[in-house]
Amino acid sequence: MTATITPADVKSRLAAGGELAILDVREEGAHSQGHPFYAAPVPLSRFEVMVMDMVPRKATPIVLVDDATGLSERAARLLDDFGYTDVAILDGGAPGWAAAGFELFSGVHVPSKAFGEYVEHEYGTPHISADALKGMMDGAENFVVLDSRPLDEYQVMNIPGGIDVPGAELAYRVRDLAPDPATTVVVNCAGRTRSIIGAQSLINAGIPNPVLALENGTMGWHLAGYALEHGQDRLFGRPGADSAAGREETIETVTKRFGVQTIDHGELATWRAEAETRSLYVLDVRTSAEYEAGHLPGSGHAPGGQLVQETETWAATLGSRIVLVDDGLVRAYMTASWLVQLGWGEVRVLAAPFEGQTLESGPWPRRMPSIALAAGETVTPAALADLLAADDGAVVVDLATSPEYEAGHVPGAHWAVRARFPKSFPTLPGTGPIVLTSPDGIVATLAAPEASELTSRPILVLDGGTAAWRAAGQALEEGLTNLADERDDTWLKPYQMGGNPEDRMRAYLAWELNLVAQIGRDGDHRFQRFPAA
């Protein structure tokens, strides 16, 4: 039996500092309905795929959170199988936390979003309204709009004329995008957080330009009645040699103000050797193209701006060590300065990161427990097409996230949540084989043994998942056509829910603004304010 821990004892651990990972094993949508402040979503449906990268040290103290419905017990058994040694279940789950009188936070990436509001509150980050920005546009004033979101979010909707410069790229690229110090730089995101952090980054970096955060971002622009662009691809260019002195100035400025420290390869080797006793994350904060072209062995990829925006996605262990990698250095220094302010005590920038090093190429090789994947019976895309055409009662069950399923799935496939198979399987039609699929087939393979315990029907796995089906030239069906379970697996942005999104946008922006008061009541945050240089 896994031990339980009371909410009061978790609070005491948080107050004491030290390492702690609080993992919410519910689906992300359920997590977003209410969770402790520092709980990181690691849904049981994808637990094996996520947990080793998020919590790399097997002796890390872990607290599991659910709705007191048994998910934590199932996750605890997996952690025990994988060799984790210090696991406890939150007594009463999230409802027990609230019953003990403690704050539950709605939404996702709450520590980072609350931090954005804290930054604006503490530093007085200057902002500009949508109406005032439209006036600057109409008056052809000297300004530039920089969008601090990743390209895929930018392409959904952007401020007219805005250039995509995600997160930590801002301080690295801004002197090339606004070389005239008289040019006003306006930073935006979808809502508030990355607008505030992005604008304050440029102010902290010491650029000479006037800098403003667009109040309420693209949502605020839309709510003010102004048109947005869609599908644009205006992206930053390569940093120029003429702006190199300014980048050096940025490094010097943030080092002096925030105490950012460096580490060399020898010291990093020592930290790696100590990784069984102190959790360590080595994260490359460059763009994905740069990372895939060549990176340090053993380093993960976390674009700097997104690492600040959703720290728990990459570093779920509070109190851990973090080493940041960037051959341009500015992105690592800026990211480190924010992690220090977020309350991370041991953050370092790796000096001369690639000098004399042998690099690896390709995407991040995510880690999984070696015992997780069991061989099962598979079916090729061509064989599945024949099976479905035979009309013998075969059915496909897609275990992708619901947005992935909506974007494209095997025609006729039913969507289900892996962690709730006992609920969905009795609703499946037909009497023939059940074929499991997921985007790359991994989650489907993990789920096959569980499915076999619930039915006498043959369980097959689509070899290579839905990606292989697509690559084989097979047709895809779009939409939420066959839902075998409740769609609460992901948190949807206000503009992703269809219909009239304006009321949801207003509610979301009000939620963000309220976070400063809520973290004050909660008392767990570790944010630090630094005086001006």
Describe it for me?
The protein has 533 residues and is α/β, with parallel strands linked by helices. It contains 23 helices and 20 strands. The protein has four domains: 3-108, Oxidized Rhodanese, domain 1, CATH 3.40.250; 115-252, 3-Layer(aba) Sandwich (Oxidized Rhodanese, domain 1); 256-350, 3-Layer(aba) Sandwich (Oxidized Rhodanese, domain 1); 378-471, Rhodanese-like domain (Oxidized Rhodanese, domain 1, 3-Layer(aba) Sandwich), CATH 3.40.250. The chain has a five-stranded parallel β-sheet. The protein has a five-stranded parallel β-sheet with strand order 6-10-9-7-8. A five-stranded parallel β-sheet has the order 11-15-14-12-13. The radius of gyration is 24 Å and the shape is globular. The mean pLDDT is 95.
Structural class: alpha/beta
Give a short account of the largest sheet: 5 strands, parallel
Q: Please identify, by name, the CATH architecture of the largest domain.
A: 3-Layer(aba) Sandwich
Mean pLDDT: 95
Number of strands: 20
Task: Specify the CATH homologous superfamily of the largest domain.
Answer: Rhodanese-like domain
Walk me through the topology:
Elements (H helix, E strand, L loop, with lengths): L2 E3 L1 H10 L4 E4 L3 H4 L7 E3 L5 H8 L7 E4 L5 H12 L4 E4 L2 H7 L10 H14 L3 E2 L1 H9 L4 E5 L3 H6 L6 E2 L4 H9 L6 E5 L4 H13 L5 E4 L2 H7 L20 H15 L2 E3 L1 H9 L6 E5 L3 H6 L6 E2 L2 H6 L1 H4 L6 E5 L4 H13 L3 E5 L27 E2 L1 H9 L5 E4 L3 H6 L6 E2 L5 H4 L9 E4 L4 H11 L6 E4 L2 H7 L30 H21 L11
Parallel strand pairs: 1-5, 2-3, 2-4, 4-5, 6-10, 7-8, 7-9, 9-10, 11-15, 12-13, 12-14, 14-15, 16-20, 17-18, 17-19, 19-20
